[in-house]
Amino acid sequence: xxxxxxxxxxxxxxxxxxxxxxxxxxxxxxxxxxxxxxxxxxxxxxxxxxxxxxxxxxxxxxxxxxxxxxxxxxxxxxxxxxxxxxxxxxxxx
Length: 93
What we know:
Blueprint: H1 14-19, E1 36-40, E2 49-54, E3 57-62, E4 67-72, H2 73-77, E5 84-89
Antiparallel strand pairs: 1-2, 1-5, 2-3, 3-4
């Protein structure tokens, strides 16, 4: 999806995505549209769930709903399996 906007993200799993130093890792307060956000039930990037920032909401492939869903930041933090925001990853052009 990000390629449609001219952005590139390596084909990484969440841990590799988080550890890739070629990608920017801005603070959550600096989130921009199309940034990736990693969520997990701990502070570990391994096995983290990835969502895409869209304004004040987050688009993600939702196992609970069985389809892509748009949730708020609060929706994620209120669920134990996504309660920890690992951080943001910014795709490059």
